## 1
Amino acid sequence: TLFRSAAQGVDPGLYSKKLMSGVLEYCAQTPHQDPYFYLYHAWRDCWGMLGSSTALLCSIDEEMTLRVCNVGDSALAVYRGETTVFRTNEQTHGWNFPYQLGYGGDDVASAERLQVRGVEPGDIIVLGSDGVWDNLFNHQIVGAIKKHPSDLQAIANEIAEQAHQIGHDETVASPFAVSSGGRFMGGKLDDVTVIVAEIVVTPPQSIQARL
C-alpha cells in the first residue's frame, strides 16, 4: 500500500499524520476514553485516503491500569528496574508484513486491545516503531534506561541513536536478521520513533506519565 501510494505521487506519511491528528482531536473533545475509541474515530475520518500506517496508543487510569491499543509492528514495553514487566506482541500477516490501517489495509477492528494491571510509580514505558525493535534487543533498551536513570529524554535519544546506527550496519545480527531465519543479515534501515515515559503519582493521587 505504501509503495502504491508513493508510485502515484502521494506522500504516504500524510495518512499517519492525519490519523494521529485525529486521535489528538478526539482526546481533547472526549477525554478519559479507551485508546481504541480514539483510534476508531480517527481511522473512520481517514476513510478513502491513500496511504497507510501502523498505530500504537496507550493510556493509564487512576486504578493503575495501562490500556494499550496496537495495530502492526510497533511495540510497547514496561520496565521496572532491569525487569521487563510487559511487552506487546507485533501484529503481522507474515515476516516483514505488518498489519496496517489505511487504503487497502486492515480494519481497525483487528487492533489488539490490552489491559495491563498493576503498573507502579517509577515504571518506565517505552513505545517504539519497528525501526526500534527490529534493531535493538531488549537488553539494549534496558541498558539505555540504566545509563540514564533520571533523564527520559536521554534514554529516548540513546535508543533512537543506537537503532539508527545498527540500521546502517550490514553485518550485525540484529533482531530483524534473527527473525528472518537466515534470509537477511544486518540491521533494518527504517524510520525510528521512540517515546519514553515514567509513571508518577502527584497529589491528590493523580496518575500521570512524565515524558
## 2
Amino acid sequence: ITQDSHVNTSFGDDPSAMDRMLQRYFRCKRFGAAAIRFSQPRGLQAPELRPLARDEVVTRLGWLLISLGRAKPAQRYFEMAIADNPLNARAPAGLGAAEGLRGHREAAVPHFGRALGIAPDDALTQLDVGAYYYDRAWETGSAEARAQFAALARQHYARSRELDDSLPEAYAMYGATFLLEGEETQRGLEPLEHASRMLPSSVEIKLLLARLHARLGRPMAARSLALAVYSRTHSEVTRAEAQAIAAAVP
C-alpha cells in the first residue's frame, strides 16, 4: 500500500491513517462478514424447456432479416417454414412483410390474409397487418384512401392490444395513426403516452410524441422530447428528424 500526500479520503482520514487501518485489517485472521440466506419462493417452478421446431427457427431468422431490411433472403426462410409447417401463421405474415418491404403492396395482401386465417387471435400478426395498412396510409396521395387505410390500421392495432396488452408497439402505433394527415391529432396523445410509460427507453416512441406535441402547438414539450431523442439515438435518420423538430419550434 503506497501513500500519496495528494490523496484525501471521504472519511476525514489522511492517507497515513488509512494505510495503518488497512494493514491492521489485513492482519486479522477473520474478516467480518454477513450471510443472507434466500428461501425458495413457494410455487416457483423450473421453466419447461423444449426444442424448437425447424419451422420456428427459420421463421425467426426470417423476421430478423426483415428487421435488417433484407426482404429477399427473408422470403426464402419463410417459404421453408411454410413447407415444414403450413399452420405456422408467422411465416405467411413474414412473406407479407417482405413483399411490403419490397414495395409490392398488393402482393402482400394474400399472405396477410392467410396468416389471419390460420391465427386470427395472434397479437403479433394483428400488429403486422396494422403496420401494412399504416404504411399504405402514409404512401397514398388520396385523402379518402388515407382515411380508410388509417381506420384499418387502427382496427388491427386495437385487436393486437386486446389480445396482448403487454405490447407497447400496439399502443404506440395506434397513437401514430392520428399523426396522419386529416386525422384527429389529439386522440393520439393518450395511447402514445401509455406506450412511453410501458417502454420509457424507446426513442422511437419519444419521437412520435415529439411530433404529436409539435402538431398540437406545444413547443416546450416537443422540443424537450426531440432533444432527448437527439442525445440518445444512434440512428442518423432519427437524429436528423429530432433536430428538425427541435429547430422548428420556438
## 3
Amino acid sequence: MKNKKLILSISCLLLISLFVTGCKQEIEVKDGSKVAVSVDGGKITATDYYNEIKQTNISVLIDMIDHKLFDKKYPRTDEEDERVEKIVKQLKEAYTDEATLNAALNQFYGVSTEEELEDMIRLEYKRELAIKDYIAKNIKDSEIEKYYKENIFGEVESKHILIIPSVSDDADDDEKEEAESQAKKTAEEIIKKLEKGEDFSKLAKKYSQDTATASKGGDLGYFELDEMVEEFSSAVKELDTNEYTKKPVKTSYGYHIILKTGQKAKPSLKDVEDDIREKITLQKLDSEATLYYQTLIDIRKDNNIKFNDTVIEKKYNALMKQLLEAAEEQAQTNN
C-alpha cells in the first residue's frame, strides 16, 4: 500500500469519471488519453496510470470498499482510539528514531506515514467488529442450545489445598522431576488423611501453599467455572456437593485437592444467550483458520459488491484465494 494517500485520491477521481463500455469488460477512463505526467522522452496518460493501479494495487481498492461498508456502521469509539494509541506507542518505543520507524512501517505494514498506519489500524478494528457480528448473527439455535447444555453451569463454591513443587529457578530436569513427584506424594498423603475423616479446612490451614486462601481453610468462595484454569474447572464440574477429588489435580500452579461445597442454579438460556454467541464466535475464529477472510468475502457479497472491470474482479478473486490459502498453510504449520 505504498503511496496510499496519492493512490486513494486519484482512485476516487477515477471512480467518479469512469464509465462502463459493455457488460463484464474493462472500464475506460474518460479522457484517458490526456497526459497525466510528462517527462523527457515520454508521457504517462490517465489510462496508463489507471491500468497500473488496478494491476498492482488491488488492496487499496479493497480498503476503499471496506471503508464504505464499515465506517458508518461502526462509528469511531474510545476503544478504537485506545487500540490505535496502544499500537502506535508500542511501535515508537520499539523504533525510537523517525527514519527507523518509517522503514519499519513500510516493511511490516506497507504504509509510509503514521497517519496511514492509524487509518489501517482503524479499518482493521472495524473489520474485526464486522466479522464478529456477522458470525454471531449466523450461529444456529442448535449450536447455542448445545453450548448451553454442555458448558453453562451455575456458580460453584469450593475449597482447595494447593501443594507447589519446591524447585529453584536453576534446577535441572532431574531436580524438577523429583520436586514434582514429591509434591504429588504430599497431596496424595493429604487425601489419605481426608479419607480417614480429618477436617478439610484444618488440613488446608496446615498444608496449603495458596497464601490467599490457606488461612481461610482453602475457601475460594463462589466462582464461574471459566474463571479457573481448565484442569481445575473440569475437576470441579465432575464433583457432587461436599465431595472432594480422590486424586491430586495437576495445574500450572501445582497439585490441588478440591472440595466442592456448593453450586448455584444454572442461569436461563435467555440470560446468557448473548454471552454464548460471543464465546462460540471466538471459538470459531480460533479453530477455523480461513474464517476471518471468508467472512469478509461473505460480507462483501451480501452487500452486493459488483465489479464492472474484469481485470479488477480477477485481481480481487486471486488475492482472496491467496489469503485463504496462506491462512490455511499457516494453521497447518502451527499445528
## 4
Amino acid sequence: METEKLFYADPFLTEFDAKVLSCEAVKDGFAVALDRTAFYPEGGGQPYDTGVLGGAEILDVHERAGVITHKCASPLPVGAAVHGKIDRARRFDHMQQHSGEHIVSGMLCATYNCDNTGFHLGEESVIIDYNADIPWEGVLDIEARANRYLWENHPFEALYPSAQELAYLPYRSKKELTGQVRITRFPGADCCACCGTHVAYSGQVGLVKFIGWQKFRDGVRLELLCGSRALEYLA
C-alpha cells in the first residue's frame, strides 16, 4: 500500500498521527512504514526531514515504489498509533531554498534558453548547474528580478495534469517522466516537474543571493542562498 503523503496536502504541517504498518530491523536502526506521513523522503535534490516518530529519532527517510520508509533509532510496535513531529526549522529552510531555486532557475533558463542540469540542496548552500555560459552580470540581473518577484508575493501552485494536458504544458524537467507527474509553478517565473516541498507564496522565501559562479562543463555552476541563509550571510 502506498503511503499517503501529507507533506503535499500541507507542507507546513509538522505534527501528525499515523498507524505503524511494518517495522523491520536494518543496519543501525529500524525501517518503519506508516499508513501516512508528513516526513519528506530524500528525493529531487532535496534532503529528507528529521524529527521524532513515536518517541524514536528519525535517522533517514526514503521512498521506493510509493512506500515511504522511516529509519528510526528504536523499534515501533506494528499496528500502534504513533505521533510524528518534524524538525520545523529544517523543513522550512528546505522549502525556502527549493522555492528560491525554482524562481531563479525559471528566470535564468528562460532568459538564456538553457536547462538546469544539476541541483543539490546542501547543508550550507544550494548548488545549481546550467548548460549555458551565463555571465556573472547576467546572474546578478536575475538575482534582482527574482527578489522583486519575491516581494510581489506570488502564490505557489501544484498541478497533477493528465498525460494529454501534460503534453501541452511548457515545463522544465531534467529527465523523461512516466506515471503521474507533479507540476509546480510560480506564475510568471517558473513551471517545473518537481517532487519537493515549497512555500505557499513567493514572499515566504524572503531573499535570494548568489554567492558563487564558476565555469562547469559546457556551462556554469552557481551557488545560491535563500531565506534565512541569505540573511545570515549578509549580516
